[in-house]
Amino acid sequence: MTPPPPTGRVGLVVNPTAGRGRGTRVHSRVAGALAAAGLEPVDLSGADVERAVANSRAGLSRGLDALVVVGGDGMVHLGVGALAGTAVPLGVVAVGSGNDVARDLGLPVGDVEASVAVVCDALTRTAGAGVRRLDAVAVSRPGGPTAHWYMASLSCGLDAAVNERANAMSWPSGGGRYVRALLAELGSFRPYGYKVTLDGDVWQGEGTLVVVANTPSFGGGMRIAPSAEPDDGLLEVVLARGLSRAGLLRLFPRIYPGTHVRHPAVEVRRARSVVIEPLEGAGATPPVAFADGERLEALPLQCDVHPGAVGVLVRREAGGTDRT
Predict the structure, then answer these.
(1) ω into residue 300 within 30 of 0, thus cis?
(2) Cα separations (Å) of 175 from 184, 187, 210, 294?
(3) What topology is assigned to 153-291 in CATH?
(4) Which residue, of 66, 70, 120, 278, has the fewest CB within 10 Å?
(5) DSSP secondary structure code for residue 256 in this structure
(6) Element holding 291 (H helix, E strand)
(7) If we measure between CA atoms, which residue out of 82, 118, 76, 131 comes closest to residue 101?
(8) Measured between alpha carbons, how far is 86 from 55 in angstroms, rounded to an integer?
């Protein structure tokens, strides 16, 4: 039997800078495909992140059956921030320069038509797709109200410093900018001082990496927490003790396949709540934290996992179940 056509209002948020402007170019294709499937696309995009978030929340207050974001991990970050704790699911059209969340969830990457088909199939409850309830992570000042949400990972080690430097560079494009920024950071690097409290247990001292992960990948394919599961109610915390510059150069390539977790300087712990603070008198001051590739703020910060806080439209064979 042919399933009935989907009906409903679908918020659409497009990042105009995603994939070197590809987000803008695919806007009409996504909106047209949603309309052709019988859905009502509602454009909630904004000139900047703040406006897009405000538009998304306004759209939710008027009623949406789903929110679809077009871009990379930064747009997923935006969608999670708008939807955490609601029953409205998130659809992802992954056409950004970094699409780690989409890859980790088995969603199409760089294929607009396939991505829209997942959204439409999920909203019609066909056998191919559904809603997967995933954990989201609330970020706050320790003991304070939630200031941010994220889906993939928060980092506040050398990788965050490299991210900050790379974002300020205009050359070269793509991964070459990250490599250039890494080499520049290594020139003046010394380990940072951390106090990390994981469900009451304390890890402290000089460190190189502190990553609080909900999904396996970050940074365009680096398997920072290869055993992380986004729906197990736990965070994977990757901690690396202080290393020399030569040691770091040997460690970083191992992050891509995820073999760094077997390095003797690296520990992986699991927790539901993580507080990260600078440790005075030990090492350099840690850099500003990044979550899902988006700049947040300086330490101290607290990360708390919220099981099943966000529903994502996925293909059933990627691990989703139809709960719509």
Answers:
(1) yes
(2) 14, 19, 22, 17
(3) Tumour Suppressor Smad4 (2.60.200)
(4) 278
(5) T
(6) strand 290-291
(7) 76
(8) 16
